[in-house]
Amino acid sequence: MAELVFFSGTMDCGKSTLALQMDYNHRARGRGGVRFSCNDRAGGSRISSRLGLQTDAVEVVDSTDFWDEVVLRRTRGVRVDYLICDEAQFYSPGQVEQLARIVDEIEVDVFAFGITADFRTRLFPGSQRLIELADRVQVLQVEALCWCGRRATHNARTVDGVMVMEGAQVVVGDVEMAGDAAPASAPADAPGTEPAVGYETLCRRHFMRRVTAHGANIMAQQDQLLPFEIDACLWRGTGSRTGSTAGNS
């Protein structure tokens, strides 16, 4: 029986790596499949892993109809036994329903991979619909880590190294910037300079206290010992942000 399976987790837990591995395994057994992705870090029409693996894929846009994609290929004689759907959190609820229909009516396996919640801990619409409709929801066993070494459970968005809790749900940013401040040669407040948007994974404790790697590095450089309850966003030197407006405490 075909299944709709949702593999979920935070950033850095190996979702895209698993997607590429599953695609390889199924193709090695003679099955035909189609790879889909949306807003991948490597650019459009790609599935890429932070390990350096990547391959081509069909880019999912607002007008993408998965039912039509499968039917068109099958009418042309292309074998479609399964779909690999990476970055599924960016799919619309209607597109997720199309995937469920493909499983039920055409018997095509669908393996979806995505982040469950955004930087505000709110469910992505696509992820929410997948949780509601999937035959199975599997949390990946590879644990992403917070800067403190604990298991990371939340995705945080930073602007010039400072964690923010407001803004658009989808904003492209750098995932390699954790702990770094804005470049000294381009101050964040300089006219015409775009703020540096980044993402990092945090444990719940540090997410709730807004202690990012950048803030922790600044606190570690201070001469005095700080109480653990300190909010890194309020510590002198780390700065604070609401939405896209910067200021100093």
Keywords:
six-stranded parallel β-sheet; 21% strand; three-stranded antiparallel β-sheet; 13 strands; 249 residues; 6 helices; disordered C terminus; alpha/beta; single chain; elongated
Q: Kindly, what is the distance between the CA atoms of the first and last residues, rounded to a whole number of angstroms?
A: 58 Å
Radius of gyration: 20 Å
Mean pLDDT: 84
The largest beta-sheet arranges its strands as 5-2-6-7-1-8
> Could you tell me the strand content as a percent range?
15-25%
* Helix amount: 10-25%
Description:
The protein has 249 residues and is α/β, with parallel strands linked by helices. The chain has helices at 15-28, 66-75, 93-106, 125-133, 204-208, 213-220, and strands at 4-8, 33-37, 46-48, 54-56, 58-59, 82-85, 109-114, 136-139, 154-159, 162-164, 197-202, 240-242, 245-247. Helices cover 24% and strands 21% of the residues. Mean pLDDT is 84; it is low at 177-188, 232-240 and 242-249. It is built from six helices and 13 strands. It is elongated and about 65 Å long. The longest helix is centred in the first third of the chain and has 14 residues, at 15-28. The strands form four sheets. It has a six-stranded parallel β-sheet, with helices on both faces. A three-stranded antiparallel β-sheet has the order 10-9-11. Strands 3-4 form a two-stranded antiparallel ribbon.
Question: In a nutshell, what does this entry contain?
Answer:
The chain is α/β, with parallel strands linked by helices and 249 residues long. The protein has six helices and 13 strands. Strand 12 and strand 13 (245-247) form a beta hairpin.
